[in-house]
Inverse folding.
């Protein structure tokens, strides 16, 4: 199939992009196009106009700031996968980016586009939820910063306004003795997740859990935090016994669908399995 007719805009500045979005009621931002264009070809999405921001300058970067790592919204997945600082300090992002589609998709898809598309089965939104990132958004009313917990609203829906553009993702630096990882359960390499789990752990003396965040993907309308499992682990030794016990309650609050890839019951069980594996992976990377 082919998309319905639409108007196309290619602004060269962020202010121009915002103005076009403001002036056109039914418009969508186009970044890498790896998700939106596929939906348009199937006519599952039919915006009246596309605002292509790929020509905007200075929105593709990985930059070390004082309190956080800044990633420009137009940074492609391939850069995130191979950036050495990310590999050393935020391995969960390396894991997630490396599992997105195939190389052609990773060469075009962007971190901002994946986040704003808000597919609950996508890899980066789950990892970013576990990292408790902040999204920088610019619009007609200026700039605002949205925490990950408030960014994802529903399936394919975020809290970004109609005339706003995500410009940056800010990832708080992890404390010493932290490790992270992401594991996706899918039918084939590159497929969307049946269940995706991202974990970030920080330990103290004796492997006592000082902090832990567990993100779950493909098990609800938005990426979720396994808060009951997190609460169970804090203050306890991160050994096999406690990790297994935490994994058993990781699906509390999850509401996965049943589809051709797996039943609701299967996904609920897989949350336990992959939470355990991901926590162990994160622990193996604690420095």
């Amino acid at each position: 199939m082919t998309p319905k007719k639409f108007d196309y805009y290619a602004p060269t500045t962020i202010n121009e992009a915002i103005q076009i979005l403001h002036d056109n009621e039914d418009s969508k931002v186009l970044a890498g196009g790896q998700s939106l264009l596929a939906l348009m070809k199937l006519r599952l999405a039919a915006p009246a106009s596309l605002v292509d921001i790929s020509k905007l300058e200075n929105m593709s970067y990985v930059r070390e700031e004082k309190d956080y790592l800044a990633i420009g919204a137009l940074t492609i997945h391939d850069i995130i996968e191979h950036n050495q600082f990310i590999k050393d300090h935020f391995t969960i992002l390396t894991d997630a980016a490396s599992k997105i589609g195939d190389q052609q998709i990773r060469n075009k898809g962007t971190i901002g586009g994946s986040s704003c598309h808000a597919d609950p089965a996508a890899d980066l939104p789950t990892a970013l939820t576990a990292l408790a990132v902040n999204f920088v958004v610019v619009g007609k009313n200026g700039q605002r910063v949205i925490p990950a917990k408030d960014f994802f609203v529903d399936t394919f829906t975020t809290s970004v306004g109609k005339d706003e553009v995500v410009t940056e993702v800010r990832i708080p630096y992890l404390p010493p003795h932290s490790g992270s990882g992401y594991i996706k359960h899918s039918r084939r390499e590159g497929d969307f997740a049946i269940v995706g789990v991202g974990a970030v752990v920080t330990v103290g003396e004796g492997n006592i859990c000082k902090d832990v965040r567990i993100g779950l993907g493909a098990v609800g309308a938005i990426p979720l935090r396994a808060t009951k499992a997190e609460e169970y682990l804090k203050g306890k030794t991160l050994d096999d016994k406690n990790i297994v016990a935490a994994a058993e309650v990781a699906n509390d609050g999850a509401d996965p669908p049943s589809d051709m890839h797996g039943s609701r019951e299967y996904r609920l069980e897989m949350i336990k399995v992959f939470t355990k594996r991901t926590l162990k992976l994160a622990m193996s990377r604690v420095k």
Notes: The longest helix spans residues 264-284. The longest strand covers residues 164-172. The chain has twelve helices and 14 strands. The chain has a mean pLDDT of 95.
